Amino acid sequence: MNRTITTIAAAAILATATLSLPGQAAEPAPAPAPGPKASTTKDKAISGEPILMGVRASSSPVSYKDGNTYIGLAVDLCTRAIEDMKKSYPKANFKFVEVTSSTRIDMLKEGKIDLECGSTTNSASRRKEVNFSVPYYIASVKAVKLKSNTAVRTLDDIGPDSTVIFTDKTTTADGLGKFNPNFRVKSTQKVFKLMKGKDHQDSFDLLTAGKGDIFANDDILLKGLIERSKDPSKYEFLPENFSLEPYAVMTRKDDEFMTTAVSKTITKLMLSGEFDNYYTSWFLEAIPPFNKSLKIPMSPLLREYVRMPTRIVGN
Asked: Which stretches does the entry tag as region Disordered (predicted)?
């Protein structure tokens, strides 16, 4: 019995010594159990968990807030895509989540939204981070000013005492520089001041308050902001047209399910002729809240996309 006790004691001492040998690494702790896997949009469509639809507050007439809801061409197209999805996934539904130009891409990548139905340009730099559907509108960049500002008549009048307003994290600044070399040189040399609004309405409010000389943005968004203002007659467009901006629904880079679903719906609407009805209702007929028509006919370039829908766009 003494021998047994001695043997057990020796084994215990040996185990203790082994654990405390200098330079010996301790046994690694067991890896924690993996957390629940984030739901993909397909998972959500199957289970009925709401698909998070990113929308804008002030991108009239494609995505904007009217009362307690969100409306616009892009919102209609995304809503239609979810309706089409219900044919295969009856529980599919969605929930609006408001985003801005500054937050949209990060919120999409972080899973805070599953698609963005706003005024987002499909650009080469963005395609490195996200996916895009078939384009649904081709905008052109223009600049607007207060009519009372007689010192600025064209973009060439922007000088050392001028302030140019942009919306944060948009492609507008690049567009102006590409199509106007003189402006690009001034921008590079920081000849004029640059002021950024947090969203399109904020940028427009800065112009209205006289904080800047011009506000440069996509033509359709500027027209929507002007028509929603208290006095549309106060504003005037500069004559120049700048870059072309193909708007598309934005999805996550790895989410081919949602990208395909939205593109399939837009393509079906374009080829059937039904897209023309959507376009007419938002660009040629009176729209809320000002009950006026923007009177913007479909451009020849967009007409070609409608005739032959494709996700391929120029850079």
From this structure: 24-43
Q: Please provide the CATH number assigned to the domain covering 44-136+248-307.
A: 3.40.190.10
Angle at 245 between CA 164 and CA 165, to 5 degrees: 10
pLDDT, one tens digit per residue, over 177-233 is 666 777 778 877 888 998 999 999 999 999 999 999 999 999 999 999 999 999 999
Q: How far is 30 from 11, CA to CA, in rounded Å? A: 25
pLDDT digits 0-9 by tens, 173-193? 666 666 677 777 887 788 899
Residue with tokens 């130009």: 101
Task: Give the class (CATH, top level) of 140-244.
Answer: alpha beta
Contact 105, 115 (CB under 8 A): no
- The DSSP line for 208-243 is HTTS-SEEEEEHHHHHHHHHHSS-GGGEEE-S----
- Which one, of 166, 143, 141, 162, lies nearest residue 151 by Cα? 162
Q: Which pair of structure tokens corresponds to residue 111?
A: 């899973």
User: What does pTM read for this prediction?
Assistant: 0.80
H helix runs in the chain, sequence order: 2-19, 41-47, 73-85, 104-109, 172-179, 181-188, 200-208, 219-228, 256-272, 274-283, 300-307
Compute the chain's Rg from CA coordinates: 28
The CATH 3.40.190.10 portion of the chain extends over 44-136+248-307, 140-244
* Angle at alpha carbon of residue 82, lines to 250 and 118, rounded to 5°: 30
For residue 12 the two structure tokens come to 């215990």
Cα separation, 289 vs 305, in Å, equals 29
Residue whose tokens read 């948009």 = 170
